[in-house]
Amino acid sequence: MKKKVFVFFPDGVGLRNFAFTNFKEIGEKMDFEIHYWNNTIFSLKDNLGFKEVVIGDHTVHKLLPIYSRARKRAELNISRDKFKDNVYPTYKFPFNYKGLKNIFKSLYTKWLIGLYSSEKGVVKLRHKINSLERSTSKYKYCKSQLEKHKPDLVFCTTQRATQSISALLAAKDLGIPTVAFVYSWDNVPKAMQVVETDYYFVWSDLMKQQVLQYYPFVKNEQVIVTGTPQFEPHYDVSLQQTREAFFKEHNLDINKRYICYSGDDETTSPLDQYYLEDLANAVRSLNTKGENLGIIYRKCPVDFTSRYDAVVEANKDIIAVLDPIWKQVGSQWNHVLPTPEDFKMLYNVCEHSEFVTNVCSSTVFDFVAHNKPCIYYNYEQPQLKKGIRDIGQNYKYVHFRSMPSQEAAIFCRDKNDLESLVKQILDGELSNVEECKKWYKIVVGETPTKASENIWNAIHTILK
Description:
Strand order of the largest sheet: 3-2-1-4-5-6-7
Organism: Flaviramulus multivorans
Radius of gyration: 23 Å
Distance between the termini: 12 Å
Mean pLDDT: 95
CATH topology of the largest domain: Rossmann fold
CATH superfamily of the largest domain: Glycogen Phosphorylase B
Protein name: CDP-glycerol glycerophosphotransferase family protein
Number of helices: 17
CATH class of the largest domain: Alpha Beta
Shape: globular
InterPro entries: TagF_C
Number of strands: 15
C-alpha cells in the first residue's frame, strides 16, 4: 500500500525546491502518494495540477510574534555566551520604539529575553510558544484536516516559518511523524529554527553538526543529511540554450562577453547599487582598452526598490536587465514566488556569463556549478553613514567560516582593484573555481544531484 506524504508549504519559499524541481516526480516513482499541504496563496492544483489540501485558516496567536522574537534573541544570547563570540548579536534586528504599541511589544520582548536567556529557559519559551499555538483555531483546523486525510508523514519544506508551528503540533499530537527541511545555508547559526519536529533534513555534514551544536535537545539520529534540491536544476542539461538562442531571446549582443551582477536585498546590502555602478565603470574603462563587455543585472527577486534605476539608466549601453521570472501574488516579501521558467533563465545566465559579482550571495554556488568564478565586493562605499549597515559584517557571519580558504571566492577589497580583477579573470589568470568547489562540497554536500532522491529515501526509512 502506498504511503501518503503531506509536503507542507507554510510559505512560498519552499516552492522552488519542492514544487518546481523533479522532487514530486521522483517521489511518485518511489511509490509515494504525494499531497501538497498548502498554506500559501499559490494554488498548486490550478497552476501545476498537483493534489493539494489547502489550509484555509492562517490564525496565529496574537502573542506569537513577541514570543518568537524573544526566543530568537534568547538563543543568540546563549550562543554569544556559550561560544564567547560577538558575531551573534549582529544577527539581531533593532527594537522598534515608535508608538505606544511598539514600545509595549519591545519592552515585553525584552522582559521575556531577560527571563529566558538560558538553555533551560529557551526550552520553556518553546513550550510556551507551543501552548499558545495549540490554543488557536488554526491548530484545530489543521488537526481536523489531518484526521480526515490521514497522511503517514508530514514533510515541512522550511524550518523557519511561524505559520508552520500549529500545523506541525497538530500532526505530532496525532502521532504522525514530522520532518523539517533546513532551508538555507546560513539559517542554523542565526537562530532560525522555529519548529520542533521528529526529524530534520539538512544539506551537509556541516549543517548537521551545527544543528546538534546549537540545539542540544535534538539527538544525532534525528538529523539526516540529504543535500538540497536547490542546485539540482544546474545539472539538468535540458534547460541549456545555445548562446545564440539565449542572447536572441534576451536581446543581448552576441559579440559581447557578459559579466553577471547578482543583486542583493536591501537589508544585506543597502548600498548595492553603487557596487553595480563600480562594475559598470570598470567595464567601461576596459572597453576603451579593447574589450567588448556587457553586464547582465539580475536583481534580487524580493527587492522592490528603485535604487538601481539611475545606475541602470546611466549605463544602459552596458547593462542588460534580466529580471528573475518570479510572480508577485501578494503584498509581503514571501508572496513573491518563483516560477519554473526561472530555472531555465538562471541556468543560462550562469552558463553564458563569464563570471558573477555580488555581495556575499549564495549565487557563488550557482555559478561554480557551471565552473564560473565569483567576485565578492568587500569594501565600504563613500555613501556609508551612521544608520546604514556596512556590508563587511556579512563576511564575519558564521556561515562564511565554512570557507576552506579565502581563495574560495575572489574578494575585491578596494574599488581601485576591481578593473584589474575583472581583467585577470577574463584573461584566465585568476579563478576561484577549484577552491570554491571544495567549499561547495562542504556547504551543499557530497551529492548535489541526488538531494531529492536522498530525501525520499530518508522518508522511506523513517516510515519503515
